């Protein structure tokens, strides 16, 4: 009995690439940088957030790298870096401690995509037009009676 030659499978061909789907979710944010000043009063709430709440937020999001940067003489900002190569910057000088946390959570939940305005006059976009158009009681054989 002669066996057919087997095709060699290389290890690189067995690799699977992660993708979002029903079995896995890959977050879009990869790094968040919090920048603050040690002396400016506008950075007080950001410093409080960093010292009290940032560790808890980092434990809840192990997939994100959190970086704390001291920038003397600059207003506090939060900067999110995303897997699509974009970044978003949010100033934090006017927020309370819970407001700073909400803005950091906004960066965590964001996709990093550019915000696109809706087209003028169209709220819902579809790939196909409506099959029958707009229904009217006047366009039927027997008129619609109330």
TrEMBL record:
Keywords: Mitochondrion, Ribonucleoprotein, Ribosomal protein. Pfam families: L51_S25_CI-B8. It is found in: Mitochondrion. Its main location: mitochondrion. The keyword Chaperone does not apply. The keyword Ribosomal protein applies. One of its GO terms (cellular component) is mitochondrial large ribosomal subunit. One of its GO terms (biological process) is mitochondrial translation. Coiled coil: none annotated. SMART domains: L51_S25_CI-B8. One of its GO terms (molecular function) is structural constituent of ribosome. Residues 38-111 form the Ribosomal protein/NADH dehydrogenase domain. PANTHER family: 39S RIBOSOMAL PROTEIN L43 (PTHR21396), LARGE RIBOSOMAL SUBUNIT PROTEIN ML43 (PTHR21396:SF2). Belongs to the mitochondrion-specific ribosomal protein mL43 family. This is Large ribosomal subunit protein mL43. It comes from Rhizopogon vinicolor AM-OR11-026. The lineage of its organism: Eukaryota, Fungi, Dikarya, Basidiomycota, Agaricomycotina.
